[in-house]
Amino acid sequence: MASPSPKSPEQSERTRKYDRQLRLWGDHGQAALEGAHVCLINATGLGTEILKSLVLPGIGAFTIIDSKKISDDDIGANFFLDSESVGKSRAEIATQVLLELNSDVRGDYVDEGPEQILSNSPDFFNNFTVVITTALPEKSLIRLSKILWDLDIPLIVCRSLGFIAYMRVQTREHTVIETHPDNETPDLRLDNPFETLKNHFDSINLDELDLKDHTHVPYVVILYKYLEKWISENGDVPKNYKEKQQLRDMIRSGIRKDEHNNPIDEENFEEAIKAVNTSVGRYEVPPSVMEVLNDDCCINLTAKSKPFWIIAKAVKDFMENDGSNSLPLKGAVPDMTADTEKYISLQQVYHKQAAADAEAVWRRTVHLLRQIGRPSDAITEKDVKLFCRHASNIYIQRGSCIADEYDPKTVDASEMTQSLENPESMMVYYVVLRGIEKFQVEYNSYPGEFDDHVEPDIVKLKACISKLLMEWGCGPLAKDDYVHEFCRYGGSELHSVSAFLGGLAAQETIKFITNQCKPIHNTFIYDAVTSNSASFFI
Amino acid sequence: MGSDYAHRKWCHLRKVLERSGPFCRPDFEPSPNTLQFLSENCKLLVIGAGGLGCELLKDLALMGFGQIHLIDMDTIELSNLNRQFLFRQKDIGASKAEIAAKFINTRIPGCHVIPHFCKIQDKDEAFYRQFHIVISGLDSIVARRWINGMLISLLNYEDGELDQSSVIPMIDGGTEGFKGNARVILPGLTACIECTLDLYPPQVTYPLCTIANTPRLPEHCIEYVKVMQWPKENPFDCPIDGDDPQHINWIYEKSNERAVQFSIQGLTYRLVQGVVKNIIPAVASTNAVIAASCSTEVFKLATSCCSSLNNYMVLNDLDGIYTYTYEAEKKEDCLACSQIPREIQISNSTLKLKDLLAILCERVDLQMKNPGITANVNGKNKTLYMQTVASIEEKTRENLNRSLVELGLRNGSEIMVADSTTPNTVVMKLKFSTSTTDIDML
Amino acid sequence: MIKLFSLKQAKKDGESPRTGTQKKASAAQLRITKDINELNLPKTCGTEFPDPDDLLTFKLIICPDEGFYKGGRFVFSFKVGPNYPHEPPKVKCETQVYHPNIDLEGNVCLNILREDWKPVLTINSIVYGLQYLFLEPNPEDPLNKDAAEVLQNNRRVFEQNVVKAMRGGYVGSFYFERCLK
């Protein structure tokens, strides 16, 4: 074959620097990250930890909002403030020190408190990709949550208190194309092969193959042949364990024998037998995907619809018209025992069909864009291909507004009430943390902040919590242990606990920015005493 | 800056160390001395100054630890900078341990990090014995197994009972992409690295015949060039160096030719690098989480302020955030940590090796059949006798008539005995009776 | 609850160890000692340890007494690494052999040497696997494609080629060194 030797691609400094993460979220994920601008409110130890794990991978820009001056105890809990900087603006120094981590990143700061900004310039937040807060008092949190809810900008609220960390994400609607599932089942369509696939299968006759070819036929072909036979004898695909077992026996009987009538070692047949369990059922669009496709946002497109919904609608139209109610084909074929020629020709049959399906969806996308009066380049063919490849795993998350948790009229306490009945549930930490916020409003300090006030604060914190529980219609806490423990912490921030949550919060931020992987839904608690964590939807 | 400053600086830590709470370990005593112990006396060893190591140093320094040794043999590369935040562009090529130590010592006055720019294998027992806790942030199974073996070899047993003061806890972290784990190992008491070796997935390998004749994946083409074509053509007269761009280029070009020849799609430069260097994807956030979890465990162990993780935590933040903790079980027949050296009384210093063999075969509690004996003499492995393998038997036969002392064994020496009657090689400790100790001194 | 160390005390440097300065054998070392001591070789196989103190490096000699390769003498080198038994030993055939599963560079295609290796397997398992390759060369998944094709198409010619190679001589364009016992 006379193909000129390819020139090795010169790797840019940037791809070499980010190599280890590009293998996780790809060049398109990195581009999204580099185009993002996040806002951090309060450069506490936790706050700078979150930014650190965003600046290192190369986020586009960050803005820090913080009116505090650096104190001695900040130095003991925050790596991104140096000991010389006591008395200076926390926002300024943190910005400076964080920027040293990565010259690709831009950063600025506002040394005003969030309360001032919320009052004086509520439009300030309009252009951020994600807003993150740490140690934000209740009153500001409620206002910020409402503003961002209306702007449809994700908000991540973080707290680190003693050995406990808390994170709550607020997002109106978040869509994910690449969910990165751990185990993906291959999309083989054996029960109803498309035309070119059927032709490919029909061109192979297992009985006529010599032994060498027989042991190198891809298992997908074997599986199809016996499934076809099964369907012709039984009218449908095998449905239960017994029927699948019979199909397996049928396949096993097809293994060639040696001169002593012992079955030969044919790995491809063994692989076919193994695949019976996952690959012979009737093709079905996953219910979670159907839910997305039947969502109002998908059915009723408007000029403002997000690209996700436009492509989803195109997929739906494709299914109902060209795709015989199947999603566009994934096109990936897992590796299997086979010789090169047989494997590659099978792979190409799937590849070509996947490309044709994606092409059809692309045409429908352009058509839809025109219908809703958007330019036809608002969505690229690449976007459509990506969507089609992952169509069976697309995901949508709809959240709730944090402000609603603070309003007795809108709070939904059923989850809390139920969880609190379970002594193992970590919901109790949510309750105590809410009590502490209330305490801060009333007494302007953390419970236990001052050494000589621990005991009286325990009583006061208990009262705050009781009030809340009454509002929610819950019974009292089973034990006072948690109240005592939080008063022991006295609002202290332990660096390793902050660093733990900091890493996780950065990762949740990256999920929102790249639209890859599913974010938490929507509250996360970490207990460093037991090293356990839990997620709730509130 | 006086102690007043330190007092204010550590006010966060002081709250949890100077106050008691309902979830503390029963033996926890709230006291200002604990913080002083952390900063002045508690000696830690951090192994690895990479993605986990940088985070560990920062976390431990801010959790009040002041006496930290750091060991790493690597130098800084450009691809480290997306997560190893103690390093800058200008540091590329310098020792990770040295740069990291300097950074921490400057940023956090009062914390003393001492770097060791070498392999862990270059240090001896006396070095490792000085630490209270060892924390490992490694990406190599071999290195993990080595330090695990080292810490187990530091255990003292008296009459088969473990002397707990000889236990040096090991906190181990590992990450891969968005997944990670942290664990607490109390050598001799809880599951060790060797007990749970099957938790580490084997390296992906492909059948040679597939690589040679029926490639289907781009990986098969790359492996072909790496395993078969390189040794044959030896283009640069040396083994493959994954960090040499010329080498990677050569492999890329050759594997691309092969992929074209077999109509295989999807071969990229990035993939070639990944396969040749066995690159594990890594991101700052996962390292931060796992290192933080390890540091919390170090803090708990050093202060007794609450119970330790028992003993294994896994993290996966691909789908929401998932953590799971469980107790990995100590293996009764673990090659490393179940080896409580058995004592063998040696009554006479002139005892010959053949007499020792006879003891092993005749003693009622042993009754061995064909013991093969090796020992570590002056830091070198020595096969004393092995009957079952003809070529070894021949070469070691003359040892049978030598005395144990002549063979380099002393009171307290350990011998390794393999025999068909025991599932594993057994470690035995020679105990010369008192009357012979002076000969031992010779 | 286990109290591991007394917090108020610093560790002493250079405290003299109770058992001398010897280093304990690694887990890999202990395991290979067991493997070697338990070697149960078929009568057609032998081992050679150039240095009896180094159990990690040795040679296996196979002299088949039946089949195509009867009368030949084939030497394999074994290198056991520090990650044994997590990783398999590296095995190469040092004798040039005309064989469908062994190529002319000495690479051996045996599943348990690569993709199917498991830590429960032993050196003995590999010895038996290698011995089997000489009794039943497998033309389905070849490494030496030419030899495999001949075996598949004409066993007589294959047999002649094997003998030719073992006596020392050309098969096709490749010259084999003599390896008869």
Describe the structure.
The complex is a heterotrimer of chains A (538), B (442) and C (181). Chain A has four domains: 9-173 and 494-536, 3-Layer(aba) Sandwich (Rossmann fold); 195-279, no CATH class; 287-397, no CATH class; 402-489, no CATH class. Chain A has helices at residues 13-17, 19-34, 45-55, 72-75, 90-99, 114-120, 138-151, 195-202, 211-214, 219-234, 241-253, 267-279, 287-293, 296-299, 307-321, 340-371, 381-389, 402-405, 414-420, 427-443, 454-472, 481-489, 495-514; strands spanning 37-41, 61-65, 106-110, 130-134, 155-161, 164-170, 173-176, 395-398, 523-527, 532-536. Chain A has an eight-stranded mixed beta sheet, with helices on both faces. A two-stranded antiparallel ribbon of chain A has the order 7-8. Chain A is elongated, with a radius of gyration of 29 Å. Chain A contains 23 helices and ten strands. Chain B has three domains: 3-177 and 282-309, Rossmann fold, CATH 3.40.50; 208-277, Arc Repressor Mutant, subunit A; 343-416, Structural Genomics Hypothetical 15.5 Kd Protein In mrcA-pckA Intergenic Region, Chain A, CATH 3.10.290. Helix content of chain B is 36%, strand content 18%. The model of chain B is unreliable at 436-442 (pLDDT under 50). Chain C contains four helices and six strands. A four-stranded antiparallel beta sheet of chain C has the order 1-2-3-4, covered by helices on one side. In chain C, strands 5-6 form a two-stranded antiparallel sheet. In chain C, helix 3 (145-153) crosses helix 4 (155-167). The termini of chain C are far apart. Classes of the chains: A alpha/beta (538), B alpha/beta (442), C alpha+beta (181). Chains in contact: A-B, A-C, B-C. At the A-B interface, helix 1, helix 2, helix 3, helix 4 and helix 16 of A face helix 1, helix 2, helix 4, helix 10 and helix 11 of B.
Give the topology, please:
The complex is a heterotrimer of chains A (538), B (442) and C (181).
Chain A: H1 13-17, H2 19-34, E1 37-41, H3 45-55, E2 61-65, H4 72-75, H5 90-99, E3 106-110, H6 114-120, E4 130-134, H7 138-151, E5 155-161, E6 164-170, E7 173-176, H8 195-202, H9 211-214, H10 219-234, H11 241-253, H12 267-279, H13 287-293, H14 296-299, H15 307-321, H16 340-371, H17 381-389, E8 395-398, H18 402-405, H19 414-420, H20 427-443, H21 454-472, H22 481-489, H23 495-514, E9 523-527, E10 532-536
Parallel strand pairs in A: 1-2, 1-4, 2-3, 4-5
Antiparallel strand pairs in A: 5-6, 6-9, 7-8, 9-10
Chain B: H1 3-9, H2 11-18, H3 32-41, E1 43-47, H4 51-62, E2 67-71, H5 96-107, E3 112-116, H6 125-129, E4 133-137, H7 141-153, E5 156-158, E6 161-163, E7 170-176, E8 179-185, H8 208-213, H9 218-233, H10 245-261, H11 269-277, H12 284-303, E9 312-316, E10 322-326, E11 342-346, H13 353-362, E12 372-377, E13 380-385, H14 390-396, E14 414-418, E15 426-432, H15 437-441
Helix pairs in contact in B: 4-12, 9-10, 9-11, 10-11
Chain C: H1 27-37, E1 45-48, E2 57-62, E3 74-79, E4 90-93, H2 123-135, H3 145-153, H4 155-167, E5 169-171, E6 174-176
Catalytic activity (chain B): ATP + [NEDD8 protein] + [E1 NEDD8-activating enzyme]-L-cysteine = AMP + diphosphate + [E1 NEDD8-activating enzyme]-S-[NEDD8 protein]-yl-L-cysteine
Protein name (chain B): NEDD8-activating enzyme E1 catalytic subunit
Pfam families (chain B): E2_bind, ThiF
